């Protein structure tokens, strides 16, 4: 053969071993491989074509690899995983290799190849034969995951839907796409394209247009279009039946309220807002209208018996009344010392009155809510931390301050008074112990937030008028202001070293959860005795008494306002579930 071919067929011990040992998997990487590929004219060695048993092939990080060489698809019929990331494969170089169908292929990774167009086999306009389009059988009938991120793609064609009809995950971040779904969806008509596509990731592109036809993807669960050039979001997103997670951050949305929501809200709230027509009528009436519409739909789905219960639930919609600072004879104020900005800069507080924690396991459920929020929205307390206090035990005014680890003293929940430094050491030992018992290699949730204070000269703390530390975030709050069954009024605090917005979003969600909890407590209590007894205990109509939120000002040491919560724009994220009387 020609010298080039000889070089390529030269010493490939990996391939010889794979053949000898009848291997199913082969991973080629590293400098030696790159050198041999370069010597072989930038293509894969012929010997690879003699491994028909191969199910998984990875050849990554080889800048010399420009083409797969013809016949790869035909030679490797059992291939289910093909990873070719960070090479220099152009569409033509891929085209010949992916020419024939790969009937078993489930995962194809072509990320980081500088592709400007897709190879014809994937329905692109790039070179190669064996176009996966037309009425022929699909080229990749089993393909579930396609990774095309970090290429230079400007557009995608409708051929992909035909070439890979079973696709579940399409990763396109870091390309130059201008529109989504753009040309990805073939012109209308059966069969529906991508019936199983549940994850579409197109962050870090140049997407300026998100089309309403996104709703034509029936299985879409997760959509990431962060860091693009979107100015608006189509209301049709609300029609994606399964959409659960969507990331729209890092776009320049015109609707500022939406922009705010996008940076901190649950996807559900964003979709509700879009469904209600955004800013248009987006106030209470459209939310109510929405609720009514949803109830109707629910009712049609359920048989009448269950439906009626829903209606009842709707009547006692969650109410929260806000007491404005100006109307409050003794508003609570939190002063912030300048030192916190290097340690844990952001704090949001408010007062919530009228909570009932007496009945049954209400207190336990209240604490569970807090734990769950810490796990989820606070990302194991690493992005934000909640502290809840009994307002009667809080001696105002409060100061959010910093103190050195060996001076800061606190009486943690359920422990004796201790210095912060010693408490942290104790907790670290406990976390370590826990980890050993569970034989865990990874860091437990506890470890993660303990690390937030590593190497800090000062620790953050919330101090009352008597100089006692009532909270030491993100670690613990104090036994001194601990919530008990008798507690009626709460002082709530959320701190973060990430952003003010995350504090507000966590607080919004906390208020909503407490309101939901309070309602279910009252409803269960109602079921426990006759109506007469209930009236005697709590006076008629108590069920719908709104919780009262008092605005709390956070000011600097000179008294200049830093944060007022809840302000007009707060609680927007949960407005579809909570009626706020301002």
From TrEMBL:
Coiled-coil annotated spans: 417-444
Region described as Disordered: 282-310
Protein's GO biological process: phenylalanyl-tRNA aminoacylation
Bias (Basic and acidic residues) ranges: 282-292
InterPro entries linked: B3/B4_tRNA-bd, Leu-rich_rpt_typical-subtyp, LRR_dom_sf, Phe-tRNA-ligase_IIc_bsu, Phe-tRNA_synthase-like_B3/B4
Keywords, in A-Z order: Coiled coil, Leucine-rich repeat, Repeat
B3/B4 tRNA-binding domain span: 343-519
GO molecular function terms noted in the UniProt entry: phenylalanine-tRNA ligase activity; RNA binding
Signal sequence segment: none
Identification of the protein by name: LRC47 protein
Organism: Tychaedon coryphoeus
Lineage: Eukaryota, Metazoa, Chordata, Craniata, Vertebrata
């Amino acid at each position: 053969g020609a010298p080039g071919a000889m070089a390529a067929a030269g010493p490939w011990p990996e391939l010889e071993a794979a053949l000898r040992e009848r291997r199913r998997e082969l991973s080629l990487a590293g400098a030696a491989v790159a050198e041999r590929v370069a010597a072989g004219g930038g293509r894969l060695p012929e010997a690879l074509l003699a491994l028909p048993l191969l199910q998984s092939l990875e050849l990554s990080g080889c800048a010399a690899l420009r083409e797969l060489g013809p016949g790869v698809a035909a030679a490797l019929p059992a291939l289910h995983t093909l990873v070719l990331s960070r090479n220099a494969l152009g569409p033509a170089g891929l085209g010949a290799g992916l020419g024939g169908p790969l009937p078993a292929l489930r995962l194809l990774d072509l990320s980081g190849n500088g592709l400007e167009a897709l190879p014809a086999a994937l329905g692109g306009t790039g070179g190669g034969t064996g176009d996966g389009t037309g009425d022929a059988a699909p080229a990749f009938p089993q393909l579930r995951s396609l990774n095309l991120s970090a290429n230079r793609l400007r557009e995608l064609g409708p051929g992909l839907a035909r070439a890979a009809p079973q696709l579940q995950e399409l990763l396109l971040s870091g390309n130059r796409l201008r529109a989504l779904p753009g040309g990805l969806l073939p012109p209308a008509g059966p069969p529906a394209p991508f019936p199983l596509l549940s994850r579409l990731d197109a962050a870090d592109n140049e997407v300026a247009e998100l089309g309403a036809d996104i709703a034509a993807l029936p299985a879409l669960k997760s959509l990431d279009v962060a860091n693009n050039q979107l100015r608006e979001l189509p209301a049709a997103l609300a029609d994606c039946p399964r959409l659960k997670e969507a990331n729209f951050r890092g776009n320049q949305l015109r609707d500022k309220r939406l922009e705010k929501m996008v940076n901190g809200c649950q996807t559900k709230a964003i979709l509700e807002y879009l469904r209600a027509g955004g800013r248009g009528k987006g106030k209470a009436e459209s939310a109510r209208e929405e609720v009514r519409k949803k109830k109707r739909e629910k009712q049609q789905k359920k048989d009448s018996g269950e439906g009626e219960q829903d209606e009842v639930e709707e009547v006692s919609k969650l109410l929260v009344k806000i007491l404005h600072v100006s109307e409050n004879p003794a508003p609570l104020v939190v002063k912030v010392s300048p030192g916190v900005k290097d340690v844990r800069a952001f704090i949001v507080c408010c007062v919530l009155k009228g909570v009932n924690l007496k009945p049954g396991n209400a207190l336990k459920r209240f604490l569970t809510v807090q734990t769950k929020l810490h796990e989820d929205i606070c990302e194991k307390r690493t992005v934000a931390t909640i502290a809840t206090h009994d307002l009667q035990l809080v001696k105002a005014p409060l100061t959010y301050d910093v103190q050195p680890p060996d001076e800061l003293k606190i009486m943690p929940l359920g422990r004796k008074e201790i210095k912060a430094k010693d408490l942290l050491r104790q907790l670290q030992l406990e976390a370590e112990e826990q980890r050993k018992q569970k034989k865990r290699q990874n860091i437990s949730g506890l470890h993660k937030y303990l690390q937030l204070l590593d190497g800090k000269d000062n620790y953050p703390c919330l101090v009352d008028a008597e100089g006692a530390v009532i909270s030491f975030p993100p670690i613990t709050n104090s036994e001194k202001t601990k919530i008990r069954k008798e507690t009626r009024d709460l002082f709530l605090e959320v701190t973060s070293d990430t952003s003010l917005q995350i504090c507000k979003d966590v607080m919004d969600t906390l208020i909503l959860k407490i309101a939901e909890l309070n309602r279910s407590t009252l409803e269960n209590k109602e079921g426990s005795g006759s109506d007469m007894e209930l009236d005697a205990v709590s006076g008629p109509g108590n069920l719908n008494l709104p919780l009262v939120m008092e605005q709390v000002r956070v000011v600097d040491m000179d008294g200049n306002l830093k944060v007022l919560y809840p302000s007009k724009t707060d609680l927007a994220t949960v407005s579809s579930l909570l009626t706020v009387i301002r």
